[in-house]
Write a structure and sequence with these properties.
The complex is a heterodimer of chains A (105) and B (444). Chain A is built from 4 helices and 3 strands. By secondary structure, chain A is an alpha+beta fold. The mean pLDDT of chain A is 87. The longest helix of chain B is centred in the first third of the chain and has 38 residues. In chain B, a hairpin with a 2-residue loop joins strand 2 and strand 3. Chain B has 5 helices and 31 strands. With 444 residues, chain B is of the alpha/beta class. The interface between A and B is medium-sized, with 24 and 24 residues.
Chain lengths: 105, 444
Amino acid sequence: MNIQFKKGVLELCVLSLLNRRDFYGYELVDHISKYINISEGTIYPLLRRFRSEGYVTTYLKESQEGPPRKYYKLTDRGKESFEVLEIEWENFVNGVNNILRGEIN
Amino acid sequence: MNKKEYLAKLRMYLQGLPISELEDIISDYEEHFNIGISKGKSEEEISKELGDPKEVALGYINSLDSNLEENRQERRNNRKWITIVAGIVLVVFAISFLSYHSSYNPGFSPGIFSLKSDGDMVRIGPKGIEVKDGEDHVVIGWNGIKVKGGADEVSIGWDGIKVKDGNRSAFKSNGWSFLGLSNKDLKWEEVDEEKFADLDEVKNISISSPFIDVKVTSQDRDDLRIHYHGRMRTNVVPELVVDKVNGDLEIKLQLSQNSYSVIESKAVLEVFIPNSFKGNINSMASSGDIYMKNIVGDNLNFSTSSGDLFLENLKGKVINITTSSGDMNLNQLNGDIISINTSSGNMKTSYLVGKLTAKTSSGDISLKDISSEEIKLSTSSGDIVINLDDSANYKIKGSTSSGDFIPNKKMVVEENRRGRFMATVGEGLYPMEIQTSSGDVIFK
């Protein structure tokens, strides 16, 4: 798949998961790579960029097994951005489906 | 590729990023590996899934918001410049003091200290410093710096930089900076030096650096390893000097002159201390950052002027931190006594254990998840923000002249009027004293 395209989709996936609850890095990577074939290392740079853009904040939380883990939390700004992207995505998918399955005059 | 190899590769490709950022990134992947391993995956498997470290590193370098990064870099450079100007003012002050002093000292001829021996000469006087060694001649005065070696000559003045190489001569006028050093005149200098020191009977380790970042970590080894590497654009490259006198090991980056100018530094002084060392460690950097992780010592002292501090997982009896404008990022510090002093630096801490005293003048203080059994905070105009976790157990007492005290829901407020406040969190077991003048006190 085209890299730029994949990147955009990946952003949407990460935001959408974080919109539901806070995740730690490994969990996010693990969940996404179950459904999409990606190099897992590409998600951390994305998370860092989200943080510098103010879409997410991070905090450390103790875990039962081992040292504290870094959790990512969506900010209001991140939420707004996710909502915009989600609409864009749906419009896009609908458009593509129309082209793939629709009739040609 | 195993975990160690993967992280080393990633680190290599990320060279050039600010050290704090680099370490933060590496720790993300370290966490990823550790969790993966605890779930039964092999290191090789995890490496493969993460993908080529080079590609991963590019993900960071490409995704850097260029504007943001430039601003930051500029701010850092400005801060460095302030230190440099201060350094030069000091040198000038010292020269004038010397000349003033010597004019009252009958042992010197007025205004001049001079040493001479056939062809060699050192002279310090009101006009500056002059050193002559045969054909080599250095003059540092009010008009600038002049270095002459035979037919070659470099002079740096207020108006620009002049280079004479035998018969050829070049002049560059002042681009932007004082001292006439313009951006293009300084080339990248490369350093890569490694030294080892045995720590037999060593009780104190002191590390000092002017503008180079310092990074101290522990390692499973017997002797101490020093690795000074990277590139910088400066008019003087600090020299690594390691001295052992009695129980003291001194690791210094030394400058051959007191004033320096740095355009950019991507060099780092890395010190690897054996796990078994349990003595005192003193670290000093003026505009360089100090990064220290996983160290257990007796007394740990840190001071910087404009450099930032990143300290993580340290344990000591006394931990002393002083900065002038440098910010502090403190994570998992454990000491009997932790004392922090800064003028305008901001302070951010999490997971702190021990008696804490922190003073700032305009710097903000932010505390998260602390379990110190005694806390004293004071600031003049900085804000204080405290995140208390569920186990917090404090009796809070404080005053502010014009700032606000904003309690959180978990605490019982006994007083909050006319700038005085008192509140209890949990059973109120440990005392917390807070004083601000115009800064707010906010509990979250």
